[in-house]
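pasting for the record
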Amino acid sequence: MSSENEIKEMVKEKYAAIAEQSKGQNLSSCCGSGCGCGPVEFSVMAEDYSKLPGYIADADLALGCGLPTEFAQIRTGDTVVDLGSGAGNDCFVARSVVGATGRVIGIDMTTPMIDKARANAARLGFANVEFRLGDIENIPIDSDSADVVVSNCVMNLVPNKTKAFAETFRIMKPGGHFSISDIVLQGELSEELRQEATLYAGCIAGAMQKDDYLKTISDAGFVNIAVQKERRIDIPNQVLARVMTLEQLRDFKRRGVGIFSITVYADKPGA
């Protein structure tokens, strides 16, 4: 088994377990289920969806790191695709904007998540929202289909981000755009610090440097790339102190090195 396949199987196993948990259970641990970390007082990644139109509490498992649908410039009648749709949280928010003439498609590679999302949609009677089992590196959607793509804290879990963004480009209509929230790094983190941060702040082992992440998007062919929102993921001093001296900790804070949630916008060239 290749290392990429091993990573995918680990992610599948982790999120299959999370699908069986409540939002409260996920909030009571640093990164949901299966990351080998102890409980914390709050989720350091997730943001509050509850004030957004279309919010469905049963679909919110507190797994994101941003609010991409809030920034996605979705319009009535659009076809929206959510990559890594989980229990359907962003899909249901998007549905409230696209209206009866629009369409929303959620893609997730974890069967229990797809089952949970479909059950939510069926219970709510949402006929224009569908969920497909699939891989972001091989998205089960026709080319030039989506007006808007959203994704929330999923690309950092994908082993081959170059292929994932190429697939995102393929499924978007010319002139379409995306808004993607994800975890990136700024500045070099020591291996010891990365391990501590991963244990505390979630499964960030696949996070790229911010500049490299934006370059991957550009290399896929996207234009008008802009960071719509940026937020530092705060790691408590007592966690940092496990691998840093007091002077190193002060220098770390001063240099702005760390883990960040960013929401990125980009266009696909065309009409």
